[in-house]
Amino acid sequence: QVQLVESGGGLVQAGESLRLSCADSGRTFSNYGMGWFRQAPGKEREFVAAISRSGSSTYYADSVKGRFTISRDNAKNTVFLQMNSLKPEDTAVYYCGAIFVTFSYMDFRKYDYWGQGTQVTVSS
To answer: CA–CA separation, 103 vs 78, rounded Å?
Structure first.
């Protein structure tokens, strides 16, 4: 069983940084690829970044490439999203997800488990 809890969201100004964390209280964390998605009001859930089971491969949306970094610590059952140079358009609820079928990282419908989300607000 995978149980995900996100933390680290908040209100920041444009250009600042935040680090999101997603912890899994289950025992099978390393069996899953992990992804971060975001959802703004009235919009569909959008892919942000993903990381393979071992952490050796990472994937990013073009909109965040060069600004965001995804990483994981399998010993601590945690995945991170370091967000730098934040922009107002990054404002959304950020969700982490766990995916077993790891060739579908960008499709939120393929994910098996989700956290409850954490709000990120970037003011101009």
So the answer is: 21
Query: What DSSP assignment string belongs to 71-108?
Result: EEETTTTEEEEEE-S--GGG-EEEEEEEESSTT-TT-G
- Tell me the per-residue pLDDT of 68-83, one tens digit each, with 9 for 90 and over: 999 999 999 999 999 9
**Encoded amino acid at 85, one letter:** S
Q: DSSP assignment, residue 54?
A: S
Residues comprising the chain, all counted: 124
In whole angstroms, what is the distance from residue 30 CA to residue 116 CA?
20
Structure tokens that stand for 68 in this block: 């965001």
| Count of CB atoms situated within 10 Å of the CB of 95 | 23
